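Notes on consecutive records. When two proteins share a document, each keeps its own sequence and its own C-alpha cell line. Never mix them. Below: protein one.
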Amino acid sequence: MGAARGLERRLLRVISSDVSHTVRRNAVIALGLVYADAPDAFVPTALLLLQSYNPYVRYAAALIAGLINAGRGDAALGEALLKLMEDNVGLVNGGEG
C-alpha cells in the first residue's frame, strides 16, 4: 500500500500543478486506475476532482468516476455526475474530446 500511496501523491501533484491539460487529464485517469480495487476510497477524491476549475480534470474525473461507480450506485457520486451534465463546457457535459 505504501507504493500506491506514493504514486497517489505524485499524481495529485501533477493534477494540481502541471501546465499541460492533457497531462492533468491523464493523471486523473491514472489516479482512478490506482483506486480501481478500492472504489470506496476514491469517492472523496473524485468528488473534489469533479469540482475542479479545469474542464479537462472534470472530464477525466467524470469518466473514471462513472467507471468506478458503475454497478455500485454511490448516491453522492451519482449526484455529482448528474450535476456535470449541466456544465457550461461542452467537453465536460457532453464528453466531447
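Protein two starts on the next line and is unrelated to protein one.
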Amino acid sequence: MKAQLKSDLNLQPVTINERLYYIAPIPDFPKWYASTCGLIISTKRKEIKVLKGVSNRNGYRQVKQRQAAKYKMYSVHRLVALTFYDFDDIDYEGRDR
C-alpha cells in the first residue's frame, strides 16, 4: 500500500526571519515541527529556528537531537514523511521501519 497524505493535518503559519512557513508537529518529537517546504523547525529554545543539519555521504539531509548525553541523527525526509503521510511500518521488502 502506498503512503497517503494525512487528512487531519492542522497546519500552523509561523514567520521566521520575515519568511512564512506552514508547519505541523512531528509525532514523537516534542518541540520539533516539519514545514511544508521540507524543513525542520525547533521550538526548544526561546526563539524559533530552522535547523540546518548536515548532508550525509549519500547527500541526504540529517538533523541531530540530543538524547541522554548522546546525539542521534535523523533524516529530514523521514521526519517530513512521518509528519505528512500515513504509511505502514513495514516496507516493501517486509522489514520493520
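For the record: The two ends are 15 Å apart (CA to CA).
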